[in-house]
Amino acid sequence: MRAIELSLTLPPGGRGPLYLQAAQVIQEAIETGRIRPGMALPGVRELAERLGVTVNTVLAALRELQAQAWVESRERVGFFVAARLPSSRALPPGKPREEAGMGFTLPDHLPPISSMAAAGLDLTEGHPDARLAPAQALGRAYQRALKLRAPELLGTPDPKGHARLREALASFLLTQRALRASPDQILVLGSVVLAVNLVAQALLGPEGGAVAVESPGNPVLWQALRQSSRAQLHPLPVDADGARPEALEALAQAGPLPVRLAVLTPQCQMPTTARLGAERRATILDLARRHRIPILELDAEYDFLLDQGPTPRPLAVDAPEQVVYVGDLGRLLAPGVRAAYLMAPAPLLPLLASARRHLDWQGDPLQEWALSELLLDGEIPRQLLRVRKAVKERREALEDALHHAFRGRLASRAGGTALWLEGVGDLAEPGRFAAWVGACQSRGLKLRQGTYYDLGQQPLAATRLGFTAHTPEELQQAVARMS
Q1: Per residue in 15-26, pLDDT tens?
Q2: Sign of dihedral through CA atoms 65, 68, 71, 77?
Q3: What total number of domains does the chain contain?
């Protein structure tokens, strides 16, 4: 493959021999990925025209780059970028890495995304395994969508999501979860995080307010709340029975500000996997009604809980007027399928749709139609059975491997797509547990320190172990590295 339409310009006022300046420009194009390893460079005459120099100058530049192993020459064919590149130049001494090549100072209010390059296995989240996705059925559904509805699906979308998918979701949620909602009460979204953003914008607005969140909890959601409004987060401590309602009551009665939102994961608490006990559920709903606190119920794990005890009952079943309910169809399919959904009281939907139009006005009508096909023809329920069987096998393999490898040094609680691991004995000391997590990371496993999940950044001798993206054999290999 040859690099065509490649823009190269000699910077004005360059110093040093002209051929070295030309070589520098070509080298920078290679280093920044504009010309990839193995790619053919434009011809010598073409390069000379683009750089505004003579052919001999370009030849001298290419020979210099060849001597440094950046390019290679192939007789009667031309010059090619080397398949294996030499190390890039070091940054100027004393210049901060994050500001190298920047014309301004980078802000520090957002944490950078951590690199997964060195991690052999990512165990931080219970992501779906793309190898289990119904790729053929999804492909056929896309083909039917384009054949039958291309002009409509490629046009301007409904900010609520395609009506056909909302109708199919309403039927699915009624059958599977006893959730009664009309299609007009459902909003189709790209992610659970987007749902959190919309609810925060609609209910808190720019003035913000007090928001009760679980701790340990999900920092991604905390960040979304803080970004979308001036939310002041207050912790609801979590134990084996889920969030403790007395903390919510104390905040509602004596807090510095009225509680304007409570964010809960009652079916499978993130990250501890605890299920909110029946008595606590009733108490929290009573508190929410008395103090007029809206509840944002996040329930992306529901589909993976049905083989783990009694059927969970969403809070939205008992208090549809009080709860905004969020689920995620994509968790059954693949990480690349963005198919979260939100169910809310009818008067709130226009506000959420308006917020969505300003934040992410265009959904994915083509995917939405395809997913409605999978729901209506029974493929989603069949996929649910396949995935649930695989998840159970993987969970049992992981628990068995941990039991034999650690023999009483770790306590685990399973729920949905992950295990919550807590240190026992010598590993109950947070510092020692953190050292163990660090050792796992050095062996190619991506795990998070317990501090990550605590709203106050307090050390925890615990971590979350997501397992659904990996086969039983891969999980057993991971445990072998841990021990």
Answers
A1: 777 888 899 999
A2: positive
A3: 3
